[in-house]
Specification:
alpha/beta, eleven-stranded mixed β-sheet, globular, two-stranded parallel ribbon, single chain
Length: about 425
């Protein structure tokens, strides 16, 4: 047996101590890096939320300032009053088109205005040749195009609270937007007036209940694509309403981040189209929209708010047919009811000349209708929705027989202050 010296014993005793310190040191370093990464992610999320809230505040302040400037300019100008009322303009045999601009949570006011027209029997499908819009205007356009009554749509919007559509966190946004799309899809598919819609199970709130199934070959809409796919259809499935099957011709605008240009949606899921056009930057994450059926892995478009370039919500008019959608007969030009709420851009509301310069062809006459000073709405102010609906509805309903201003060739304007109707 070899002799063990004292130095050997000391060396053997020291080795574990050195190793344990190394392990502890590595563990502490790894823990520090993990904690540092977590802190960085939390700080990034807080920074993103802060930026989004500041964007909302800046946008709201900007629209209010534009509204005040617009009103002052209007008062300073000499007003030429025409002998034409809005009721007379909308009652002509050629019908009219509806275009609605972007406004932060302005769909409440749009539903109120459309309810006033419906109450006056001016919103019948036989009178409207097509609808278009951007952002909040696209939401309103999609719902009336599917055949929903404005009163029904406003009741639905007013019943939705923040917790119903909040699904944080999103990518480059506070919310994902999936729950918002699901709410829209379920509402539109409930007794919708459209036909030949598709069905699939992803929008079911519950998939665990046992139910009979039916094998059927249907068209399935996935991210705006239309493809034939055989799947199991249940009795409780909700329908996916398609833009091309709507009761009224419709085109909504969204901004494509991949091409840095406006994309006009005329086919695909109506709920996803409304979500894409209303994807306010920073509040909701961008929407993937696939047009290329041969390539499902790479997104064809990544869409955000249509108001980025379509600031007045009328550019989609150029993608609507010059007739009532039936293919029977054509019109000499499009007569447009252009609705703006909240005062955004009204000081420069465009008439036929400006619209044609922007690339929209065959515009015959335009009525620029703005409803301002409705109760402010937003993610934290959805409780003001019913008041905004009521104020807009009453303001327009009591002004249908007022003479409009004539601001250019075949361009009329009706400015409504909803303050006294709140």
């Amino acid at each position: 047996m070899e002799d063990v010296t004292e130095s050997d014993c000391c060396e053997e005793q020291r080795l574990p101590t050195v190793d344990s310190k190394g392990v502890r040191s590595s563990f502490v370093a790894a823990h520090y890096r993990l904690t540092s990464n977590c802190r960085t992610k939390v700080l990034c999320q807080l920074l993103l939320v802060s930026i989004c809230l500041h964007l909302v505040l800046v946008y709201s302040t900007y629209t209010l300032a534009l509204s005040a400037i617009s009103h002052r300019k209007m008062l300073s100008k000499s007003v030429i009053v025409s002998n034409l009322t809005l009721r007379e303009f909308l009652s002509q045999d050629d019908g009219y088109y509806v275009a609605m601009g972007p406004a932060f949570f302005g769909f409440y006011a749009y539903f109120g205005a459309l309810t006033a027209l419906d109450d006056a029997q001016l919103l019948e499908s036989t009178k409207i040749n097509g609808v278009t819009g951007a952002s909040a205007g696209a939401m309103a356009a999609v719902l009336i195009a599917t055949g929903k009554k404005p009163k029904e749509a406003s009741d639905f919007a007013c019943s939705v609270v923040l917790n119903d559509f909040a699904d944080p966190p999103g990518v480059f946004g506070v919310f994902q937007g999936e729950r918002f799309e699901k709410l829209m899809s379920e509402f539109m598919s409930n007794d919708s007036a459209v036909s030949d819609n598709v069905k699939y199970e992803e929008h079911l709130s519950s998939t665990n209940s046992s139910r009979p199934t039916l094998r059927s070959r249907k068209e399935i809409s996935v991210d705006g694509d239309i493809e034939n796919e055989e799947r199991s259809l249940g009795t409780q499935e909700s329908e996916i309403v398609l833009l091309e099957n709507c009761e009224l011709p419709i085109a909504v605008s969204a901004f494509d981040l991949l091409r840095l240009q406006t994309k006009y949606l005329i086919r695909g899921s109506a709920a996803k189209a409304a979500r894409a056009s209303a994807t306010f930057p920073g509040l909701f994450q961008p929407v993937i929209w696939n047009d290329d059926k041969n390539n499902k892995l790479i997104p064809y478009s990544v869409l955000i708010d249509g108001g980025v370039l379509d600031s007045q919500g009328y550019l989609g008019l150029d993608h609507l047919p010059l007739n009532n959608g039936s293919g029977e007969g054509t019109l000499s030009g499009k007569r447009v009811l252009h609705i703006l709420v909240g005062g955004s851009g009204f000081s420069s509301a465009h008439g036929p000349t400006e619209m044609m310069l922007a690339g929209v062809k065959n515009i015959d006459a335009v009525v620029s209708l703005e409803i301002v000073n409705t109760p402010p709405c937003g993610p934290l102010k959805v409780k003001n929705g019913p008041f905004a609906v009521s104020a807009a509805r009453n303001a327009l309903y009591h002004s249908l027989d007022d003479f409009m201003e004539e601001v250019g060739d075949n361009h009329y304007r009706l400015y409504l202050d909803a303050t006294k109707f709140k």
